[in-house]
Amino acid sequence: MTTVELTRFHVVPEHVERLLAARPAMLADFRADRSGFLGARLVRLPGDEWLDIVYWRTPEDFADSRAKGANLPGITAFFEAIDHVVSAEEGTTIEDEDER
């Protein structure tokens, strides 16, 4: 089982390019600085909303990441493009990727 972070957020249209441009550096910072980071998927939703699905090895890895916040430039740049967070949840996968 994998811990999953689900964050839904709003981005004003004029900041979408900035968000997408910041994404690679944010992911690179996560890979370099966040123990247990397994990967992420960014989903564009209707109404200027987005869903970031982030996979963590354990709940503790996710908690440690949250405690660090926007501690690196790539992460800060991504977060600054977000207008506001709509919701944030944590879950656990039931099946592995290859079981779908």
What does this structure look like?
- With 100 residues, this protein is α+β, with helices and mostly antiparallel strands.
- It has one domain (3-89): Alpha-Beta Plaits, CATH 3.30.70.
- The protein contains 3 helices and 4 strands.
- It has helices at residues 16-33, 59-68, 73-80; strands spanning 3-10, 37-44, 49-56, 84-92.
- The chain has a 4-stranded antiparallel beta sheet with strand order 2-3-1-4.
- A hairpin with a 4-residue loop joins strand 2 and strand 3 (49-56).
Give me a quick take on this structure.
The chain is α+β, with helices and mostly antiparallel strands. The protein is 36% helix and 33% strand.
Low-confidence stretches: none
**Distance between the ends:** 14 Å
Task: Give the mean pLDDT.
Answer: 95
User: What is the strand arrangement across the widest sheet?
Assistant: 2-3-1-4
Protein name: ABM domain-containing protein
Pfam families: ABM
Domain ABM: 6-66
Give the topology, please.
Elements: E1 3-10, H1 16-33, E2 37-44, E3 49-56, H2 59-68, H3 73-80, E4 84-92
Antiparallel strand pairs: 1-3, 1-4, 2-3
Helix pairs in contact: 1-3
